[in-house]
Write a structure and sequence with these properties.
CATH class of the largest domain: Alpha Beta
Number of domains: 3
Strand content: 15-25%
Distance between the termini: 90 Å
CATH superfamily of the largest domain: P-loop containing nucleotide triphosphate hydrolases
Helix content: 25-40%
Oligomer: single chain
Radius of gyration: 29 Å
CATH architecture of the largest domain: 3-Layer(aba) Sandwich
Structural class: alpha/beta
CATH topology of the largest domain: Rossmann fold
């Protein structure tokens, strides 16, 4: 189920700093300049028992200037779509008219909110606490987002306040279906389960939520997640479109694999590449499905495959399959590939096997010397899944040339059969266990050394 928390307040109260701290990321740009955040930014926040979406918003101001008004409207849309709101104030400054206007509007919307005073590390004589109590806010938490003061307390309060939306999720491999509007995602699912479960229309944007559907294919259990088509410019459009995008992001995070559906009549466009990049950044494996192939000629399909975008290294790393959702063509191949890719993406590779491969790669193509010093790879081990992560230890980490890193990545991807699976290689500098340590001589060795020095002096004389 979908829950989200919105952070709101006037400009420069520390919303982006708090967002970064709670999501343990650096996704939001932080600056002393007010009004830097213009669009809603989002990230996931982990609790012990649940996971929720956190939405960072631009500063709310009373200004009819077009851009500032648009930023404020975006913030209020986030409030209306959220389960809970963090109302953030600058605890080192006095309460302003803008602060009061935000409080009054929030009350009119009947939204539950938590009042947080930020920047408590700053020494000031602000009367903001007394002013808040006069205006009916008796409870508030004092934090410093920058210095992590009381952030753990805030997290525990948020966890208790969030509605319990946990449901029993049926067993099965989770498959999210993504693409631009009208690519045929809902038709694909309807034909697959032999039900008119999802509304299908030629009007793009009919699906506005993520819908989970359990089904079986060749005695394998799957959970299909249909998502709304992600439009170009979704950040600036109507709130329904924006949160359809957010739900699609949520679906990616929950899935074991993403089937990306492309309309063969329209070929691959910039927006498709952006969606694919978004999935890759989430570390999830991808299966590229070219849909509506029954509506185009063989020459047109060949033209798509020979296009500059399809010939890029970016796309060549992804398994591709041709389907017709309407005619139910290619379904068996889709799920055979889906099964194979999921199994590969969840596989843990043994250290001995990885080290043997690394040794072979280095023997075939030795790494160059950097500043007259040869690069020596010590060992490699498995680091995790989604993305499949390998950690390579060497005598140097930051000076390894990017083309050699790419060579190792391509070699591991090929040998491990990781087509369509995201691969991340982390290079770490091996620590010398003897660095900074000196051998301590025994008493006998010290006396022997002294005798040897005396002997050398005598022979010189």
């Amino acid at each position: 189920m979908f829950t989200s928390i919105a952070i709101i307040g006037r400009p420069n109260v520390g919303k982006s700093t708090l967002f970064n701290k709670l999501t343990k990321s650096r996704d939001a740009i932080v600056s002393d300049l007010p009004g830097l955040t213009k669009d809603r930014n989002h990230g996931f926040m982990d609790f012990k028992s649940k996971k929720t979406l956190l939405v960072d918003t631009g500063g709310i101001v009373n200004d009819k200037e077009e851009l500032k008004e648009a930023i404020s409207n975006q913030a209020w849309i986030a409030v209306m779509e959220s389960s809970l709101v963090i109302l953030l104030f600058d605890g080192s400054e006095e309460l302003t008219k803008e602060d009061l206007d935000i409080i009054y509007k929030l009350r009119k919307l009947s939204k539950e909110f938590i009042t947080v005073l930020n920047k408590v590390d700053k020494k000031s004589k602000s009367s903001i606490k007394e002013d808040l109590q006069i205006n009916g806010i008796k409870e508030f938490l004092e934090v410093s987002a920058e210095h992590s003061i009381n952030i753990s307390i805030l997290k525990s309060i948020l966890e208790k306040k969030l509605p319990d939306l946990s449901i029993d999720i049926p067993e099965g491999k989770k498959v999210a279906v993504l693409g631009r509007p009208n690519a045929g995602k809902s038709t694909f699912i309807n034909k697959l389960i032999n039900e008119d479960r999802l509304i299908v229309s030629e009007i793009a944007g009919t699906t506005i939520d993520s819908i989970s559907i359990p089904f079986e294919f060749n005695e394998e259990k799957f959970i299909l997640i249909d998502t709304a088509g992600i439009r170009k410019g979704y950040k600036y459009n109507h709130k329904v479109e924006y949160f359809s995008f957010v739900r699609a992001m949520h679906a990616i995070e929950q899935s074991d694999i993403v089937i990306f559906m492309c309309d063969a009549e329209e070929s691959l466009v910039d927006q498709d590449m952006k969606i694919l990049n978004m999935i890759i950044q989430n570390g999830k494996p991808i299966l590229f499905a070219l849909n509506k192939t029954d509506l185009v000629s063989k020459n047109a399909i060949d033209k798509i495959y020979n296009s500059k975008r399809m010939q890029s290294d970016f796309i060549k790393k992804i398994e591709q399959v041709e389907i017709s959702a309407l005619k139910k063509k290619g379904f068996k191949k889709v799920f055979n590939l889906t099964n194979r890719i999921i199994d590969k993406s969840q596989k843990k590779f043994p250290t001995s096997m990885l080290n043997r491969l690394l040794e072979n790669f280095v023997n075939k193509n030795a790494p160059p010397s950097v500043s007259g010093r040869p690069i020596k790879f010590k060992h490699v081990h498995f680091g995790g899944t989604y993305p499949t992560t390998l950690i390579v230890h060497s005598n140097q980490d930051k000076k390894i040339p990017s083309n050699y890193k790419k060579y190792l990545e391509n070699s591991f991807r090929s040998e491990l059969g990781l087509k369509s699976v995201q691969l991340k290689i982390i290079f770490r500098k091996s620590e010398n266990p003897f660095e900074g340590k000196k051998n301590k001589l025994s008493d006998r060795q010290v006396k022997k050394r002294q005798r040897l020095i005396k002997h050398i002096k005598k022979t010189k004389n």
